[in-house]
Amino acid sequence: MKDWFEALAPRERIFVAGGSVLVALALIYGLILAPLFGASGAAEERIATKSGELARIQTAAARLEQLGDAPASGNRSGQSLVVLVANSAARAGLGDALSRNQPVGADGIRVRFENASFDALARWVIGIQNSEGLAIDSATFDRSRDPGRVNASLILRRSAA
Questions:
Q1: What proportions of the chain, in percent to the nearest 5, are helix, strand and coil?
Q2: Is residue 75 pLDDT above 80, yes or no?
């Protein structure tokens, strides 16, 4: 290859060297820089989405805190808590993640979610609080093996009427 390059005329050497530099720059951009820029843009978009969801959750939490000990209407649908939780979890896309739901006394239920989407679980908790008057008595969250997914144990109770 070196012999071939040295056999070229000076003008051809400049042309080949310049082309080689351009090809090297194109490879660096295409294989290294473009994927990095794309990944950072996707990360920024995910951060913006998560920030918006966090703001909505904080707003809902503040609203719930303002309600304080205000009486809630309890189980508004008239269904048992086991059926209510199973149906609402299925509607929220958490049916496969719901691994256990067991009554706790007359006004509570213990639920266990395995490898559930944290975002879907947070929306489900807020929804069941707003629609059915169930409040979290206790909650435990553990990271799952997949990013954005959790294992969760919750005890939900009917709010005092």
A1: 55, 25, 20
A2: no
